[in-house]
Amino acid sequence: MTERKRGLHSAPLERGYRNGVTTEATRRVLLIGAGGHARVCLEALLDDPSNDVVGAVSRDGLAANGLGIEVLGRDVDALDIAQRQRLTTFCVAIGNNIIRQRFGKMLTERGHVVTSAISRFAMLSRSCSLADGVQILPGAVVNAATTIGDGVIVNTNASVDHDCSVGAYVHIAPGVAIGGDVTIGAGALIGIGSRILPGLTIGAGTIVGGGAVVVDDVPAGATVVGVPARAIRREESEA
Known about the structure:
By secondary structure, the chain is of the alpha/beta class. The protein has two domains: 3-116, Rossmann fold (3-Layer(aba) Sandwich); 119-228, UDP N-Acetylglucosamine Acyltransferase, domain 1, CATH 2.160.10.10. Helices cover 15% and strands 31% of the residues. The chain has helices at 36-46, 78-85, 97-109, 234-238; strands at 3-4, 14-18, 21-32, 51-58, 71-74, 89-92, 117-118, 123-124, 129-130, 135-136, 141-142, 147-148, 153-154, 159-160, 165-166, 171-172, 177-178, 183-184, 189-190, 195-196, 201-202, 207-208, 213-214, 223-225, 230-232. It is globular, with a radius of gyration of 18 Å.
């Protein structure tokens, strides 16, 4: 059986209603974030019938068009809003690694549950291990004996092959392909459509540019781009 330390199982559950249907166990969720990524996470959360996503908060109290749930206020007031609404858990639906980590750590340090958003269209090995607050989105693949850390995003159609170790608060962007036995340090951003060859180590806080093909180990804090990937200064990547 897949080990899923997803936060889902440690949240208190209660009988409730969702879309007019009685549920055996309802987990009342507050979505932190109300942009495009939050929309994707919301749909993944609702793939689990025990989730009742009551509303969202955002930096400015506004939401992307068509979010589909009520924005209850600003993210700085998330804990007060959760208390008033009797919410039992949170989903930090923010793509930015630094901000997602800040909220995730703040919530867990105060004893709150950060739940995971796992799409029914994702493919998870029986032997993979998922930590708390992960987001495994449509078309994503997590293969055998791979470990995914707290707050990691494996985004749309991204694949992580066997025996990989992905550190906390990494974002693996849409369309990424990661070979077997790869280690990715905490807080790394693996850009859209990039490729990482088997057996490599990607250091903490690295940025792999979109479409890059990584053929060598990457030190912590580096930014690499191109085919094959080469290191550049962060100023170049932001120019």
